[in-house]
Design goal:
single chain; mainly alpha; about 65% helix; elongated
Length: about 80
């Protein structure tokens, strides 16, 4: 997985490629990327990521779920800096 800054730039560039001048504006592209990240953050706030395989009970890692949320919050902050 890319770091938050790289992911922010990747999302921005994907939206940049969709719009043609004179219709594209920096703020609009940022807003599209921010909406995408908000959708990820709000789609399922209780997503758990399995790490290193599950134990015999199939437990998921709460720590990793927090890490995933933190990653996307950091991506959002990096988009805002663009």
């Amino acid at each position: 997985m890319s770091n938050p800054k790289e992911k922010a730039e990747e999302l921005y560039c994907k939206y940049d490629a969709l719009f043609k001048a004179p219709f594209k504006k920096h703020q609009d592209l940022k807003q599209c990327a921010l909406i995408a990240v908000d959708e990820i953050l709000n789609s399922n706030p209780h997503i758990y990521i399995e790490i290193g395989g599950s134990d015999c009970r199939g437990d998921w890692s709460y720590k990793e779920a927090q890490s995933n949320q933190l990653y996307w919050q950091e991506v959002k902050q990096e988009i805002e800096k663009l």
